[in-house]
Amino acid sequence: MTRSLFSRRAFLQTTAGAAGASLVPGSILLEAEPSFSGRLAAASDRIRFGIVGVGMEGSNVLATAVALPGVECVAAADLYDGRHTLAREIVGKPIKTTRRYKELLDDKEIDAILIAVPDHWHKQVVVDALAAGKDVYCEKPMSHNPADGLEMVAAYKKTDRIVQIGAQRTSSVLCAKAKELLAKGAIGDLNLIEASYGRNDPNGAWEYPPPPDLSPENLDWDTWLGTAPKKPFDPNTFARWRCWKEYGTGVAGDLLVHLISGMQFSLGINEAPTRVSAFGGIYRFKDGRNMPDVHPVLFEYMGIPVYMRLSLGSESPEVTRFQGSKGAIELREFSVTYAPQAGVDTSPSYYTSSYPAKMREAYAKQWHEEHDPPPGKEPAAETITWNGNDYDDLRPHLARFFDAVRSRQPVVQDAVFGHNAALACHLANESYFRKTPVYWDAGSQTIKSLS
Fold it and tell me: Right CATH number for 3-169 from 3.40.1690.10, 3.40.50.720, 3.90.800.10, 1.10.10.60?
């Protein structure tokens, strides 16, 4: 099966067209990194992996992974039996399927584990996989809460295993170009970052249709609940778990984490925000959920304000804008644009309109004498756009993971990076629920209120 059957983004691109990826006049095309071009791996380098969780995102991860050269899926675990059938369909051959993920961890022939389970199960599966000596790819956000994240980082640091978290922008050529421009000081002194991500449809708000045959007979409901409070079997909870904080992390863990990860990578930082203030509410999807469907958040990173707006009630372009004293960099799904700014006066001050005419004319004459460039030497600030593949493309991110499994070289988005990105989401959620600004107290390793 192809990726387009499983990815929301790929589906929307197929139906609406991917015109944004086209090369337009005045733009430059960024090629994919050579290591992701489909090179063949030697038989001795073949990686055997298992996957835990074959739901909406897990099926996308699996379909993308098996299409890469030099890797082989040999087993899949899911608590819903219907996904055992789906896993075999995607792989295209018989593989081991089970409800018990620890059976995959006990298999010495399995090198790596891909994890795409609900957020409240991330910590346990990752910690168990590391203890079993497996390399780990875990979907974003890394953790369900700060305590889980700390335990995951501790487990990672005790091993020599590769851990990569699945927010794909750290493997994007577009984000790499933004990182290059920022590192060169293209926009001067950075003073503000703004980002937005908006959807406007029930599917985008996780109102997914549960499998029609779902029942306690083909789903291990009690195990699925895990550490969450016990409740009767509910198909909607199973399919729409992101709506509730007991199982997911809401719009912060689904969407905000992408913006945070891309921003951190582009800036070359790996840290939690200094303070966070969040707002919002449940304005449109009043379906029993307890996570907000509109969630604006103001962060502080490196002493700089970062404003990110998340909404499930109105479609808006997905964009991050880095603003500085010499220009701006705008990062979009298929492009990165650099727009330089002079940052100086290019004409006499309009305040002189308050001068008497003779004084105003004298000022203007002197200003032009001191500031006008010689004829033919006028600066021509040019806006440049680089176009490239979708920065949420999963293929290069998975390829980077499997390359690291072979080479044992570290990845950018390891457990520490994943923890810090997830912390931003947890802080945003805590500020929303507490209705007050919060910060991460490194001493106590907890979230505290500022007020």
Answer: 3.40.50.720
